[in-house]
Amino acid sequence: MVLRVENLSVSFKTARGLLKALRQVNFHIGGQQIVGLVGESGCGKSTVINSILNLLSDNALIEEGRICLQDEDILTMTPQQLRSVRGQRISVIFQDPMTSLNPVLSIGRQMTDIQYRDKLSASEKKKRIIRMLGRVGIPDPEKRLDSFPHQFSGGMRQRIAIAMALMMKPELLIADEPTTALDATLQIQIIDLLKALQKDIECSILFVSHDLGLIADFCDQVIVMYAGEMVESGSVRDIFHRGAHPYTNRLLECDPARIKEKTRVLPTIPGEIPDLVELDGNCIFVDRCPIKEKGCPLTWPPQEELSPGHFVRCHLNRLGRNQ
Ligand SMILES: Nc1ncnc2c1ncn2[C@@H]1O[C@H](COP(=O)(O)OP(=O)(O)O)[C@@H](O)[C@H]1O
Ligand SMILES: [Mg+2]
After folding, report:
1. Which residue, 68, 69, 139, 217, is the most exposed by fewest CB within 10 angstroms?
2. What is the average pLDDT across 56-69?
């Protein structure tokens, strides 16, 4: 087990009151597992990631929970301990590679800097950089060390960001929509590259995406989030073939062809996400649930395990009326 998120609840202080962004989030990422996190904008994906990286904004309040990397709780680490985790044991790539690259430093310099903990000689560090850049597909890497990020194309920049993220062989890579800004061909190349590197480095990946096709293709496990809760989680097969929450099924049923087509945006579902400042403690999906009238008590459903590792929060499964 690489990462365990236990009962994580996070709120943001806002002018209107506490916005309950995450409520009772529970999941774990096993060694070498690829876990996909999917849900509409505003469902809490970035808050999960920022909690893991301990980069929540100042107005965030961790109400409860633990995030254990192996057996250490990230939420209680000192700044010094966190520095030895970020970039070394957990690293991250974003939709926009410029988020992780420094525009005013050459890539050689940046990739040297992240090796500051290693006692290797300068020439060994340089060799490692050249090897890693070659591994991610940068042509003539030894000639590009003095280049700056803007001198590369978008696809090449994402490759460099991946090289930076994986050079220190982290236990966990967090990938937040890493291919959303790229065209379809580049998207496939980057995913294939990530697949190959994940096998080499034997790291685990938390993969955030709007793209259900990519998630089905790339991940082992899937977490479906809605309005700050995990409504369903399980293997790719559980979610794509035996989806039990009406939200999951709404996402999938909208148009199965679009899933094959590798759609970039989640299908639209009628209705709106509830106001996270004014939650009433009942089921969060009530307003958009297509099957709520079928004897559903409408209260907050407990999490149930339908089969080993397949979890859902919906009364209708218990009532045997899931459709
Ligand atoms: N710093 C913040 N202050 C107040 N509310 C925030 C802040 N960051 C996120 N939120 C709110 O928390 C909820 C979850 O946001 P986020 O985690 O960014 O969702 P996602 O990444 O899935 O789009 C949203 O309602 C969002 O408006
Ligand atoms: Mg986000």
Report:
1. 139
2. 97
- 223 compared with 184, residue with greater pLDDT: 223
Residue 111, domain CATH: 3.40.50.300
pLDDT at position 267, please?
64
Count of structural domains within the chain? 1
* DSSP for 34-49, written as a single string: EEEEE--TTSSHHHHH
Q: Is residue 231 included in any domain, yes or no?
A: yes
Mention every residue, 6+ apart, whose C-beta is less than 8 A from residue 228. 20, 21, 22, 23, 25, 43, 44, 47, 276, 284
Residue to probe by mutation, ligand 1, list 9, 13, 16, 47, most atoms within 8 Å of CB: 47
Q: What is the mean pLDDT of residues 264-279?
A: 79
Nearest CA to ligand 1 atom 18: 46
d(CA 20, CA 41) in angstroms, rounded, equals: 15
| Number of H-type helices and E-type strands within the chain | 12, 12
Out of 16-20, 83-87, 246-250, 253-257, pick the least confident.
253-257
For residue 155, give both structure tokens. 């696809």
- Hunting for tokens 């800004």 — which residue is that? 181
Domain range for 154 is 3-236
Give 142 Cα–ligand 2 centroid separation in angstroms.
35
Candidates 321, 266, 268; CA nearest to 292 is 321
In a domain, 208, yes or no: yes
**CB 204, CB 35: distance < 8 Å:** yes
d(CA 298, CA 286): 7
Cα separation of 243 and 216, whole Å? Answer: 13
